[in-house]
Design goal:
The chain is an alpha/beta fold and about 450 residues long. The protein is built from 16 helices and 12 strands. The radius of gyration is 29 Å and the shape is flat. The chain starts with a strand and ends in a 7-residue tail after the last helix.
Length: about 450
Amino acid sequence: MTIYALSTGPGISGMATIRISGEKAHEVISKLTKGTFPSPRVATLKKINKINTNELIDEGLIIWFPAPHSYTGEDMAEIHVHGSLAVIKAVQSSISQIETCRLAEPGEFTKIAFQNNKINLLKAESIGDLISAETEIQRSQAIKMMSGINSKKFNFWRNALLKMLSNIEAKIDFPDEEISDEILDDIKFHSENIKIEIKKTLDDQKVGERIREGFKIAIVGPTNAGKSSLLNYLSRRDAAIVSEIAGTTRDVIETHLNIDGLPVILSDTAGIRNSKNEIEKKGIKIALEKAEDADLNIVVIEPKSAYFTAFLKDLISDKSILVINKSDLGIDNIVQEYKNYDPLFISIKKEKNIETLISRIKDKLKDKFINSDDILITRERHRQHLEQCVLHLENFKNKSQAEDFDKAAEDLRLATRHLGIIVGKVDVEEVLGSIFNDFCIGK
């Protein structure tokens, strides 16, 4: 089977790249062009014609990558043409006429590269993260993952456990042979050290996942305090409806922002107050859940929110910023209890102290970071398999008697398997779909 797809973004552009991979890639280029076939890895200017009619489609560059020295490990070609929708459609329509050529599925080129051992599973994921990166910190993290920092560490742990497993299985296969106390002590010592290292890696405040997905910021507070206005101001668009009618926001409204290179998911929530309206009560419940789950809460009140003091103790914490909006209307009547929480006085209407608020947000988020060199986990699936690995190493530690060798070997085997699943060293078909479906079609 030969696959093809547009690898550059859809829409009108200066140029477009159509990628082809598979056993028919050579035939595709031969039928689309005339004359000498392009030399490997040399951009060659060619007239590109419709198959069968020889009608000229466009003039562009052809780059030929013969197997196995290509991104996918198969014969592969790239056609660089002008980014006209008509040109792209005509080229793809011609390719589709060749038997066994079909449009690629999302992430299929990278999936084939993984299956042909051109890249491991972690690198495949980091390529997807790099394509999706919207901020500098996301790009930087994806590049570090692509360099193999995390896969080297996971493989180091896995190979060390495999070596221990081989010693234990030797005892099972040859029960008359004794394993020296020195080897047994060495196995216990190194398995415990690996377990400690993995637990340290798990204790990372989920920074890698936060960077990849975005830091969660919830705007919470009473009705009519200016929460939706703040969301609209920070996102530079009317993302939320702003009204003087209390309780306008019933559901959570989210927008993705780039705050000084930090990826942020900003959520506007329902106003918190005592309400008898069932729909509004559900919105308030969701708002409180969002506040609990967020990395940072911006608690917005205004000078007339005296009734809100009862809610403050539940919302103010070390991950909160108390903001008093509408300060242009006067702050003389501010409840003394508010002042105990080091509030920031702003006016969205007058654009007063908004930059100071943004600086506080950046400072709070930067406190979430650990040394970037320590970041190994960027996805929930990595975390789940590492947790399972630790569990099996704990079980292994508790089996120290000679008669437990069979069970101990199984614990080590399972621990090794979970590390293998992370890097793709074992059968991981069940996770491939979810990983590569996040890719764009031309990758």
